[in-house]
Target: DUF659 domain-containing protein
Amino acid sequence: MFSSSKDTPKDSHTGDYIFQYIDQWSEDIGSERIVQVVTNNATNNVAAAKMLKEKRPKIFWTGCTAHTLDLMLEGISKLQYFSKIIEQAKAVTIFVYAHHKTLSLMRFFTKNHDIVRPGATSVMVVLKIFSPLVKVLRLADGEKVPSLDFIYCEILEAKNSIKEASNYGPIFHSTIKSDFEVMEGFIACVETFYHGDLEKQDRVVNHELSLYKNKIGSFGRTLAFKGCENKDSEFDPDNDYIEDKLFTSTQEP
Model:
């Protein structure tokens, strides 16, 4: 549901300015109704996030995943090894496609294939390193399906693909349940969501998580296993989706 917007072309978008706007908006709506604020990773937004965290510690402030990946690609492209190859590839491409005779010769001898062909070339290494991140970027920037439930696994796959392409050390295949970074993030999430309530934090982290991992209680029911198998991206608690599903299932012979 859209709440409001603000036209601020003449204002200086400092960290304090953004914080004041978000804080007032939180006050108007009610901070207890707000779970998360998402912005890009600009310095002023990071500064505003720190201010909001101090005043309203229960609200999550998250950097945009697509913007983060975009910055990663930009940063990698500026590394000396990659930037040199990218500039050389650009120069060759511009030269070939800017001269009709050269382009005709290229198409004749390559049988209309692309300039870059599979092989152990520096350009192919660069492409193999960039392609996995570009794939994740497109998934994160999509509008049809929320990426929260699968984006971390896609990032892990991208990391492994990059390691294979660059021959960089061993490839580690980790799972969500055993990944240290994921667990640290999970605990930080619980601490924020139940800020100041150690009893609830203890219950979620030290008790209910164990039930989930070991499939005990409600997590061990057949219905729970079925729910894990059938992810439905069209779920919307605001409509009659659940009632329709239940009604359909009861009508089946």
Q: What stands out?
A: Confidence is low (pLDDT under 50) at residues 169-174, 233-253. Strands lie at 36-39, 60-63.
